[in-house]
Structure prediction request, 833 residues.
Amino acid sequence: MTVKPKVATVWLEGCAGCHMSFLDLDERLLDILGKIQLTVSPITDFKDYDFSETTLGIIEGAVGNEEQEEVVHRLRRCSSLVMAWGDCAVFGGINTLRNQYTPGELIRAGYIEPPLGPGQVAPNDPVLPRLLPRVVAVDQVVTVDIHVPGCPPSPQVLFYALGEILGGRRPRIPPDILHYD
Amino acid sequence: MDNKASISLRIDGRDVTVDEGATILDAARQAGIRIPTLCHHPALPPYGGCRLCVVEVDGAPRLAASCVMPVRAGMDVVTVNERILETRKTVLEFLFSERPHHCMVCSQSGDCELQSLAYEHGLDHFEVPGLNDEFPLDTTHPDLVLDHNRCVLCGRCVRACRDVAGNMVLDFHNRGGRAMIGADLSDQLGQSSCVSCGLCLQVCPTGALYLRHRTHYAVGGKARDRRSVPSVCPSCGLLCPTVNEVLSDHLIRITTPWDNPGAAQGQLCRKGRLDPFRELGPRLSRPMIRNEEGEWAETSEEEAQAAAGRLLAGWIRNHGRSTLFGLISGRRSNEEAAAFRRFMTIALEGARIDTLAGNAFRNLSRLEETGVRGEPPIEAAGEADFLLFLGDGFAQSHPILLSLARKARLDHGAPLIVLGPKNPLGPWASIHLSASASETKNLLNRLANGEAGNDNLEEVRIVAQAWAEARHPLLVLSPEYLAASDPGILHAALALAGRKRTEGKDAGVVPLRPEGNSAGLWGVGAASTEPWNEPERFRGGLVVLDGDELPDADETRALAAAEALAVITPYQIPTWMEKAAVLLPTPTLMEIEGHFASYDGGRSVFKTRVRPAPQGVRPLEDTLALVEDHLRSALKARSDAGGRPMWMEASS
Prediction:
């Protein structure tokens, strides 16, 4: 029996739309899941991220805080291939709107300037990850092997990219299914 | 005669022969070889700004921009190899990195040349990280939005504004990374000298310039989801061809084919490109009548038609037909006008029939009787070497004239003279004399008899001098003077041009019709040759509108006295609702198909329907036929209206 490749997916600064699009593969999902071992994923919802011996690490979302930065580094270290899903992971996406401001300005505008309700305080628990000065695309933090843009990427393009990888080829997305929106 | 020498060269191993002076891009396109371009536009002068069209010439180390590089005999051109593709990809990456081009939040996504080129070149990510600077968004213009965040500085809008529209509002400001498109001297678009022709909208390859009003607020959608409906613009008698982009019955954009052979030469004016997006008031999608308190209330179609029939029948019974009138807007189609004429001559026989601004018809038809002809086409304005605008209404009725006038001034230095209360040409006018109607007539007479040359005013002497030197002068008569009760200015203008023609010069007068299909309606017989003759004695009737058109002076007097008025209109226009007793809905011009006549009536063009009318809004022909039925049965029925006011007659 051949060992099925381990695939881990993570959801960083994004809306989960890419994972939804993955679920939209419908019956083709069974085909894909028959060929891989899905280890860590927002779909499995395991709380500890065991990325060991991952063949394909998939990242949805941009890198915007210290925790996400660490996850990306760990996934890269453990994975043979890293694929970025969606405009946020590929370009930074809509999150980069905040790059016009400093994290301090954002926290002030979000939690300090608006009147807080009785008993409410601005989040200040030390376990909360700090915002990075700027939201960046994943390939500005670690090397990304395969980029699949789209907001979200269509099920077709995700199926195509996964199929190529599982077939041992590097995907080159044809212009008719490549899209940024 | 074409005496250009032929030049032979090789492109991708194929022999191509083109005329001398052609660019490599021209030659490649002639041979059916595609070279991607971005700043290049076939209707605009080449610019060589984006470097996307680079090709290899004779194996030279430096690639050449094919859109500006002229062909040379024996050239060996390669349009695709790895080095060229890498260069093009890098060019695209730099363009994306310079501004925050976020396709997923851009309304032009799916309809963007920058995006399509990136897809074509397989750019699935960017190696060059983008700048995160925020660029300004100019929302000061009533119709356009200039979003610098989406701009690639291709300069198409600058060239279109300067070289095609002759406007010179848009230009580059600053240099290098700080370069921006700007209006006038760093003004916001809304405060600039922009004439809202919208040509920049048609040439912008990205979402940097876009239409701010949409009939819905969703994104434009993918090209494959949209329909392109070819039609014509019936706003004035030039009947410019249009291409209307429609997404599930919502109008998205109006453009015109670049090979548009008419006056506009690839252009549309504000009326053709932007006004169809404006609602002229709340839409009348259901009929309305006045209730017991005299307030407007929606009602059923049947009841409203019956009310209109009773209103007119009641007036006929009590006062006869000779004090009724029917007025139709000069914007409606020939078919609608024919149905209206039928209604007026059969159902309301004996009542007066006229178009809004019917005086213009009578003033012109009297000229035809006297044999004074020789009306040049409006297009002649672009060729004239002297343009005299009589009145300022031309800018509202035929905005394209502003563009033609600027072209005449730019191309061959034609003096542009405006005689009227306002100066719509602004700084482009050589001379503006703020003249009333009588002063204008007086000046025309003095130009004709040579007295103006000795006038006390220097401006008048300059006008006289320019007139004396002109070889093909053109006088443009604004609709307000054509539709005036006293046609004195029209006659004075014709006399002046006639005198010039006796000198062997090619002088002409263009009398501008007040509304787009005025000539067509007159041809159908929807106007009366008799003057109004005491307009106040008319007390009621039927009016068919398109929207915000205005009646001429005599009609205004007749309407002021009206007591029993039914109005068929697409919109709820307050000025008409004050007078009316019944409002019946009708489609807008975008929602009808039919024939429209050119400005001089010489040509008839079929306009296709761009989008369907709202549910329940019938074509005018049907509404008139149904009102006619009710009018007939009301006339048969014997019921006494008593001494009640007419609006109660309508609602009883």
Observations:
- Chain B has a mean pLDDT of 88.
- The longest strand of chain B covers residues 241-247.
- Chain B touches chain A at residues 100, 102-106, 109-110, 115, 118-120, 122, 124-126, 129-130, 132-134 (CB under 8 Å).
